Amino acid sequence: MKTIPLILMGCGGVGRQLLQHIVSCRSLHAKLGVHLRVVGVSDSKSLVVASDAKQKELDDNLLTEVCRVKSDGSSLSKVNGVGECQTFSNSESRTEVLGIASLLGKSTGLALVDCSASSETVGVLKQGVDLGCCIVLANKKPLTSTLEDYDKLVSHPRFIRHESTVGAGLPVISSINRMISSGDPIHRIVGSLSGTLGYVMSEVEDGKPLSQVVKSAKSLGYTEPDPRDDLSGMDVARKALILARLLGRRIELSSIRIESLYPEEMGPSKMSVEDFLNGGLVKLDNNIEERVRKASLNGNVLRYVCVIEGTRCEVGIQELTKNSALGRLKGSDNVLEIYTRCYSEQPLVIQGAGAGNDTTAAGVLADILDIQDLFP
């Protein structure tokens, strides 16, 4: 039986779902000859680790309790009375994680799994690389940090997996890596990489006001608590940067041209969420309605996409033909078109659910299992 020890950083929706997947897949993994040994779980305030990280693990009862506590909105410091574990405060957790990484990294192997949405994990991940750890990411921020940070994280390509940073569980990163490895040059990528914005653009195409669509998306749980986090385009820009860097582009996030769907004067620092939803949002209806009308007259539709081509890397609204894969997009699916030498006339199209805790966690789990050959 091959054992993969791991520490999970981030116990929000994706992190909890990952733990539930690990517990529920025990019999399946046993048939595959693999055991995932969770030795630690952290949130922004606390770290829970096995009493003996070299030999023991957080058992399934404790992992279930972790999920329950976090679902109730409490800190991991509230986890107690189940199994053998130790709890550390946020100020102590970095030292403890690196201690475990030093103990296990080069001897038995250790996966540092980042399902947080924080940029504060970058330092630990970089040191983990030096300690021989494998890095598995759902968090986009480490790979969209400075080029110096990026270069460090990807310095040992076999030891990093980050499929879930773009397209959740869709095979985007692996497909691009296969093309690069095969010598089939990628010269253009166009993608709708936000389930929220995909839903919004396909709904306004049907004649619904933007303000109504955004409110509906929020009530359906498609948007962040502040919809401007989606409407700003920053999430798509981070995904575009990850893809661009994968293609060898030496660029920073600030290099990407980003079209926000709201003006600066409606930003979070100028207007509350309530004011934006109740007064600001409706002021955006006419502009989008007019753009939809003009696109329709040209026989086209509007989609919020990323475009990577040559030195160009931008995200924003584009007019696209109705019969293209992106033009046919409805709802919250992600769609990516990849143009290469082999796929020059008809692009490789990757489409499917590109968001959701369950889908993203499944992608992370697949990435963890994919590194098993690196472990003794």
From TrEMBL:
Pfam family, one: Homoserine_dh
Full protein name: Homoserine dehydrogenase
PROSITE patterns (alphabetical): HOMOSER_DHGENASE
Top-level EC class as recorded in UniProt: oxidoreductase
Record's catalysed reaction(s): L-homoserine + NADP(+) = L-aspartate 4-semialdehyde + NADPH + H(+)
Residues annotated to bind NADPH: 140
Binding site for L-homoserine: 224
Membrane-crossing segments per the record: none
Family: Belongs to the homoserine dehydrogenase family.
